[in-house]
């Protein structure tokens, strides 16, 4: 193989030589023919070593300079190779330029990468320094928290079992950004199942997230904290609503008033804002406690005369100002009226008479003096004019709250026979009537209030007619305006009806068990 390569090489060379020779000869014959006669005279060098110089034609120009074409054989100076080399060199330098520009480009990119690495380093350092760390521990923590939640739910479930407590709606926030805006809202009766389901879902979600997106760990943790808080609230509200148990209307098996709710503002009285004095409430008919009858009796604007009253046959009608009757009496005095068994009882103007008024016929069924009662705005309530005689209704029937000179203006309580308006029994308290803002009866116990400020009233005094014991209590009642003109308890729904500077407020009552 090697020999053959050599042979080919030689062959190639001789072919080149041959071609060049031919070319030179042709050239010479064309150019030099006229001058060939004097080659030797000009330069003897041309003759001398024939090995170096082959046959050369020359010529002498006008100024005597000898010109000749020389054939230089391949072995002496490889023109073709030089040419080739030159071409290669050019190509190479072009390539070099190209590579060099690439290198410049690369170095630019390297600079950019360096910057990016620097940025990343800073970020990583920041992450390391800050308390936020995304580690497996987070997921472990999450799982522990979720199992805690599950335990809580199980407890809640068992403690809720069988009870008919009404827990308010509980709203759970969206579980995570990944679970995008799933809002959990459910009623108490669905609470047990829903909560369990959702916490089951949380577990699934966390497992998914663990393999997906670690950055949501914090979001999830926040959700879990919120869930925990809400569970706690739910548990607490359950405990709270369990404490005052249910006592059917009319019953007095509880141990008295525990608490009242926030006031529910029913509406402004039907005569308007300037009718700041008056009373309102719900009838109690022991034979028909379910029957809904309401009265609203705003006094005339002088705060003294009871003239017009309205009777509503349902709460809706009251809200819609659709009275069953709107009637007139001439006149009652003060805001002490009360409705019992479809009769309106009120204090007759300018007297110490009690009036039993038939609301269906709008006629006075009976009038009778209240013995020893002091009237004429002498022992009215604090901040309320002309309420010397205040009727009250509780589970046991009709009462009247007033004062006597004999009892030095302190509250006197009398139980009335509603048929005859006779006083059945009387209790003398040691609470000065003009120092309390109002009073009502509940299961034979008188409760009296006093203002704490313009927005709060306190039920602070009680007198138990069954034992003759008086005592201090402190139940705060929020109010909407400064003065409470009347408070009437209705055994039908166990609510307090309050006339507050023209507004009709209603409160739920909780009892001690
Ligand atoms: C040179 O060329 C001339 C004319 O072509 C010829 O006569 C002569 O013999 C040649 N000499 C040699 C050495 O070839
Ligand atoms: C490095 O961070 C800065 C600030 O966040 C930003 O403006 C810059 O574009 C970042 N550089 C690179 C190369 O990412
Ligand atoms: C939670 O439970 C409720 C009721 O089963 C369901 O509608 C809601 O989609 C659940 N939440 C999640 C995150 O699955
Ligand atoms: C939540 O759980 C319920 C019942 O197990 C299932 O139907 C629902 O697809 C779950 N939701 C999510 C977001 O995993
Ligand atoms: C709720 O009551 C139960 C016992 O009935 C008690 O173990 C639990 O600590 C109470 N929870 C709160 C938040 O008061
Ligand atoms: C009484 O009611 C108030 C306000 O509604 C509430 O904050 C408080 O916990 C209640 N107290 C009791 C003993 O129920
Ligand atoms: C009320 O008076 C009527 C008529 O005199 C009488 O029949 C009734 O028994 C009395 N009621 C009470 C509780 O004393």
UniProtKB/TrEMBL annotation:
GO terms for biological process: signal transduction. Keywords: Coiled coil, Secreted, Signal. It is found in: Secreted. Residues 103-130 form a coiled coil. SUPFAM superfamilies: YVTN repeat-like/Quinoprotein amine dehydrogenase (SSF50969). Residues 251-513 form the Olfactomedin-like domain. It comes from the Eukaryota. Residues 1-17 form the signal peptide. Pfam families: OLF. One of its GO terms (cellular component) is extracellular space. This is Olfactomedin-4. The lineage of its organism: Eukaryota, Metazoa, Chordata, Craniata, Vertebrata.
């Amino acid at each position: 193989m090697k020999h053959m390569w050599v042979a080919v090489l030689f062959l190639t060379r001789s072919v080149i030589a041959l071609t060049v020779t031919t070319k030179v000869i042709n050239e010479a014959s064309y150019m030099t023919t006229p001058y060939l006669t004097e080659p030797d005279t000009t330069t003897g060098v041309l003759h001398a070593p024939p090995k170096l110089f082959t046959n050369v034609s020359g010529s002498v120009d006008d100024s005597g300079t000898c010109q000749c074409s020389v054939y230089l054989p391949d072995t002496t100076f490889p023109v073709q190779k030089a040419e080739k080399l030159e071409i290669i060199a050019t190509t190479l330098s072009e390539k070099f330029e190209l590579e060099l520009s690439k290198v410049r480009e690369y170095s630019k990119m390297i600079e950019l990468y360096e910057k990016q690495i620097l940025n990343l380093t800073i970020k990583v350092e920041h992450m390391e320094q800050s308390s936020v760390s995304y580690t497996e521990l987070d997921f472990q923590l999450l799982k522990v928290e979720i199992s805690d939640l599950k335990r809580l739910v199980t407890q809640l479930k068992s403690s809720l079992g069988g009870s008919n407590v009404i827990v308010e709606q509980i709203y759970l926030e969206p579980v995570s950004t990944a679970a995008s805006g799933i809002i959990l809202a459910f009623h108490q009766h669905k609470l047990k199942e829903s909560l369990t389901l959702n916490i089951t879902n949380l577990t699934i979600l966390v497992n998914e997230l663990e393999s997906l997106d670690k950055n949501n760990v914090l979001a999830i943790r926040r959700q879990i904290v919120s869930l925990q808080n809400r569970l706690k609230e739910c548990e607490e509200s359950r405990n709270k609503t369990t404490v005052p148990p249910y006592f059917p209307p009319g019953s007095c098996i509880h141990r008295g008033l525990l608490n009242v709710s926030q006031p529910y503002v029913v509406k402004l009285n039907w005569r308007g804002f300037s009718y700041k004095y008056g009373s309102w409430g719900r009838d109690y008919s022991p034979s028909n406690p379910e029957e809904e009858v309401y009265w609203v009796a705003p006094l005339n604007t002088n705060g003294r005369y009871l003239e017009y009253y309205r009777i509503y046959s349902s709460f809706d009608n009251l809200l819609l100002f659709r009275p069953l009757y709107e009637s007139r009496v001439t006149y009652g005095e003060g805001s002490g009226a009360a409705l019992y068994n479809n009769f309106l009882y009120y204090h007759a103007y300018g007297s110490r008479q009690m009036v039993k008024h038939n609301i269906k016929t709008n006629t006075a069924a009976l009038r009778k003096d209240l013995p020893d009662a002091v009237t004429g705005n002498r022992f009215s309530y604090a901040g309320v004019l002309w309420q010397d005689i205040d009727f009250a209704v509780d589970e046991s029937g009709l009462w009247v709250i007033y004062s006597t000179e004999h009892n030095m203006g302190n509250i006197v309580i009398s139980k009335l026979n509603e048929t005859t308006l006779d006083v059945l029994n009387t209790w003398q308290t040691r609470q000065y009537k003009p120092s309390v803002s109002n009073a009502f009866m509940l299961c034979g116990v008188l409760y009296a209030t006093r203002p704490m400020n313009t927005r709060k009233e306190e039920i602070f005094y009680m007198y138990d007619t069954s034992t003759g014991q008086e005592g201090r209590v402190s139940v705060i009642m929020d109010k909407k305006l400064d003065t409470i003109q009347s408070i009437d308890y209705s055994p039908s729904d166990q609510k307090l009806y309050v006339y507050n500077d023209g507004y009709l407020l209603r409160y739920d009552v909780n009892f001690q068990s």
